[in-house]
Design a protein that fits this description.
Elements (H helix, E strand, L loop, with lengths): L21 H32 L1 H11 L2 H28 L6 H25 L1
Length: 127
């Protein structure tokens, strides 16, 4: 039988009662960084193909990647690589049945976020 009160109920989850949580933000960021890594990888592949093609093509590709915008994209790709790797380790921990309590999951989320920033800074400092 059809529900006659369907129009009187709020959609679920209604935006006025739904709150962002660290686990949902880190999950969304994991998906975004996975896609962003593809863009960074395509730039590096373009740079390698241009190097194999000739000096003129390489000069164009190298000019783009070494520009301020290219350096910003590469820095973002480096952070995305560290973030995505640490998020993958977090999922491996969860898959083993560990740290599934909310407080532990939040702690792991902050470790992933802070660890990715720290490892990015260390990588830039070393290289």
């Amino acid at each position: 039988m059809a529900d006659v009160n369907r129009g009187n109920r709020p959609l679920s989850p209604h935006m006025s009662i739904w709150k962002w949580q660290l686990n949902s933000i880190t999950s969304i960021l994991t998906r975004i960084t996975g896609n962003a890594l593809l863009i960074g990888a395509l730039l590096v592949v373009w740079w390698f193909i241009a190097a194999a093609t000739g000096p003129e093509a390489f000069a164009v590709a190298d000019g783009v990647i070494t520009s301020w915008f290219g350096k910003l994209v590469m820095l973002g790709s480096l952070w995305a690589l560290w973030y995505h790797s640490l998020a993958g380790l977090r999922h491996l921990i969860w898959d083993s049945g560990r740290m599934l309590e909310m407080a532990d999951a939040d702690r792991l989320g902050w470790i992933v976020v802070g660890g990715s920033v720290l490892l990015t800074v260390l990588t830039v400092a070393i290289l």
